[in-house]
Amino acid sequence: MIAYKRILLKLSGESLMGNRQYGIDENRLAQYATQIKEVADMGVQVAIVIGGGNIFRGLSGASKGFDRVKGDQMGMLATVINSLALSSALEAVGAKPRVLTAVRMEPIGEFYSKQKALESLNAGEIVIFSAGTGCPYFTTDTGSSLRAIEIEADVMLKGTRVDGIYTADPEKDPSATKFTEITYDEIYNRNLKVMDLTATTMCKENDMPIYVFDMDTPGNLKKVLEGQAIGTLVKK
Questions:
Q1: At which positions is UMP bound (predicted)?
Q2: pTM greater than the 0.90 cutoff
Q3: Using CA atoms, how far apart are residues 215 and 223, in angstroms rounded to an integer?
Q4: Residue 57 marked ligand-binding
């Protein structure tokens, strides 16, 4: 049994670094591609958004003197680089990816539209949304929420290096405990850093569930799609 028929998978740019300090770890990229193809072969419709923090983050650039708008545009381009890398890795394992960009840059990628995305998903292609929302001041978390809502995904999967949402940062606080389920309001009230507030609010207002899990452990994506409770579900 498949728990979700259509998913939006959000991956962080930092996760693509693997053990590196910068850029893309080819082994991590191949590992992700294998996991994604595995669930696509199960009949799951897969759409993906990747951050760009392994290359450039607009907000951190602004703190170092970059114009915020130009910094965010640089961050958008970083997500395109990551999207092309994942597309190539997916092709290498026999999958059929399609890169759609939020700003026009043919022939690097096709300009996004909901119709194109749904046609590709229904045809069994893996759709990669890049360049965020195409607008500055919005994170790729918000871009993920927006695209998940637009394509009417069953869930937004947030793949991280942590196996769910905790009462505190488990890497800093050994006494932190993990939630199996949590509401959007609890995230606000506890000031938990799951996603930025804009992204979380969009999901709440449009009743888009979020599932946070450890993507860095091979086989975990399949476990989520099989309905195994290995992460944390966020819902109303």
A1: 52, 72, 133-140
A2: yes
A3: 11
A4: yes
Burial annotation 46-62 (CB, 10 A radius, 16+ → b, else e): bbbbbbbbbbbbbeebb
Mean pLDDT lowest among 53-67, 98-112, 113-127: 53-67
Rounded Cα–Cα distance for residues 207 and 45 (Å): 19
End-to-end CA distance of the chain: 24
10 is in an annotated binding site: yes
Asked whether residue 5 is marked as a ligand-binding residue, the answer is no
Mean pLDDT, the chain, as a whole number? 95
Give dist(CA 5, CA 42) in Å, integer.
10
Q: What is the DSSP letter of 184?
A: H
Please name the residues in contact with 191: beta carbons below 8 A apart, sequence gap of 6 or more: none
Task: Please indicate if the annotation marks 144 as binding a ligand.
Answer: no
* 22 assigned to a ligand binding site: no
Per residue in 176-200, pLDDT (tens digit) is 999 999 999 999 999 998 999 999 9
- Give yes or no for a contact between 110 and 98, defined as CB atoms under 8 angstroms apart: yes
**Does the annotation list 169 as a binding residue?**
yes
Digit-coded pLDDT (tens) for 20-61: 989 999 999 999 999 999 999 999 999 999 999 999 877 776
Task: Tell me if 134 is assigned to a ligand binding site.
Answer: yes
Q: Is residue 203 annotated as involved in ligand binding? A: no
